[in-house]
Amino acid sequence: MNSLNVFSYIRPELITLLAIDLAIAIVLLSAMRLVSGLWAKVNSTEELSQKDNFAFGISMAGGIIAMGIVLTGAITGESANSYLTEAVGVASYGLVGLILIKIGRYIHDKISLNRINKVEAILAENVAVAIVDAAAVIATAIIIRSVLLWVEGINIYTLVAVLTGFAVSQTVLVAVTRIREKNYARNNQNASFQEALQNGQIAVAIRHAGHMLATAFAVKAASYFLIYEPTSIVTNLIGWFSISLVMTILIFVLNKIARRIILIGIDTSAEVDKQDNIGVAAAEFAIVVSIALILTALMA
After folding, report:
1. Using N-to-C axis directions, what is the helix angle for 233-262 and 156-187, rounded to 10°?
2. Contact at 8 Å (CB) between 272 and 180?
3. Residue ranges of the alpha helices (H) in 188-277?
């Protein structure tokens, strides 16, 4: 009986708004599959069902999850002034997210992993490269979502704020990749991190994926400290970058301490880098992401 009373409070216009949001979301999620095929210049149906290309599936799944994350920033659950306003708002944010995810993937291809032809590697069923690719787009989406929830309204200032947050996110993600490369070389007699991914070392990919997601949460934390000022573009840019940098360093320091305690007695570098131990890599992934989530929650 109580459940019926609850349903009686649901207004027809709210159901219509939800239907509009879901319809747009499904269209955009479908578009992400199309974009994945266009990015790799292949037929996604053939790669998934005929060639059983697990790497392509992981890469595409990362893109779909990323699109879903962005849409949760566009769909707030608040009633719009009209159905058209709701549809335009959600579709606009979704399309901006789709474009930024595509740009972020391009930056990751050409700058972060500049020694790897990521498309060729994924089409050659390189799961390690696919895992890193999926993590990169999901990390980008987490940051885009945080900016969408931070800004107010839909105008030119909103777009500038979103682009500012995106620029900071890509800068920090590239920097973290370079730091991880140097750390890998130091622990492995100057061996190449990107070559390890090219050779299909899944454990290395899983660990790096964890660090990228943790970095995304570090950048997201900046939204908790900054007050949205539409006309303060430079202030927003400096604020996002400074806080993101501090949070990233803090997360990685705490992760190093936690890893040594939780994985005491295990030489994680040897297990992951030399023995391709996926179990240890998964544990490292879980630790760094957990530290980032906990710290972000505390800052909120």
Report:
1. 30
2. no
3. 193-198, 202-220, 222-225, 233-262, 268-269
Distance of alpha carbon 198 from alpha carbon 115, whole angstroms: 9
How many angstroms separate the CA atoms of 68 and 142, rounded?
A: 10
Question: Mean pLDDT per 10-residue run, the chain (300 residues)?
Answer: 52 76 86 81 86 93 91 66 75 83 88 92 96 94 85 73 82 90 92 95 97 92 80 78 88 93 94 96 97 88
Q: Other CB atoms closer than 10 Å to residue 169's CB: what's the count?
A: 30
Cα–chain-centroid distance for residue 54? 20
Q: Is 215 exposed, middle or buried (0-12, 13-18, 19+ CB in 10 A)?
A: buried
pTM of the entire predicted model: 0.88
Give yes or no for a contact between 113 and 41, defined as CB atoms under 8 angstroms apart: no
